[in-house]
């Protein structure tokens, strides 16, 4: 549920950045991106809706530089993930639980994705919990469904980018490593998640999507 709520907040922010508006040379307001202050992502400090200048080549002015809108929104996602992933995993409490941190992380992750599968937000198949390893496959992705609903399928991959930026923040705390060489949003037929005990994962992190 927390992931779904975060997704809707993120999608709303993304839609603002992708909306077509009149072009302007004004600089955008400074955006303070923190998990405890999501509202600042979509409003200026005085509470008015955020205006981000658009340009004919689909670029956005960020300070004195122009970046593509994809780069701009991906940057937001990466900054959000630093706060949202620890919050979604309740990582400060999780590491205090009795028992092995990695095994507790595996149990939490398995229960979380099984719950999302039951809710129908993500379709999860072939979940296997083995010694020092948890693997499962996602065959239907809510991020992709939302992207299609907004007629903007390219935003779905930002959910993948969220994971790539967010998991490194928590994995050392639970003695884990993350591998995912395929994702639906980035052109594959499935997302294959693998979590390994630290030191046992294959040397394929560079293939993560």
Explain what the structure shows:
The protein is α+β, with helices and mostly antiparallel strands and 209 residues long. The protein folds into two domains: 2-85, no CATH class; 94-207. Helix content is 40%, strand content 17%. It contains six helices and six strands; from the N terminus they run H-E-E-H-H-H-E-E-H-H-E-E. The protein has helices at 2-18, 69-88, 91-94, 101-119, 142-149, 157-171, and strands at 59-62, 65-68, 123-130, 133-140, 176-179, 191-197. The strands form two sheets. Strands 3-4-6-5 form a four-stranded antiparallel β-sheet. A two-stranded antiparallel ribbon has the order 1-2. A hairpin with a 2-residue loop joins strand 3 and strand 4. Helix 1 (2-18) runs antiparallel to helix 2 and helix 2 crosses helix 6 (157-171). The radius of gyration is 18 Å and the shape is globular. It starts with a helix and ends in a 12-residue tail after the last strand. Mean pLDDT is 78; it is low at 1-5, 11-43 and 52-56.
How much helix is in the residues?
A: 25-40%
Overall morphology: globular
Q: What is the number of beta strands?
A: 6
The biggest sheet amounts to: 4 strands, antiparallel
Order of helices and strands: HEEHHHEEHHEE
Overall tally of domains: 2
* Rg, alpha carbons: 18 Å
Uncertain stretches: 1-5, 11-43, 52-56
Number of helices: 6
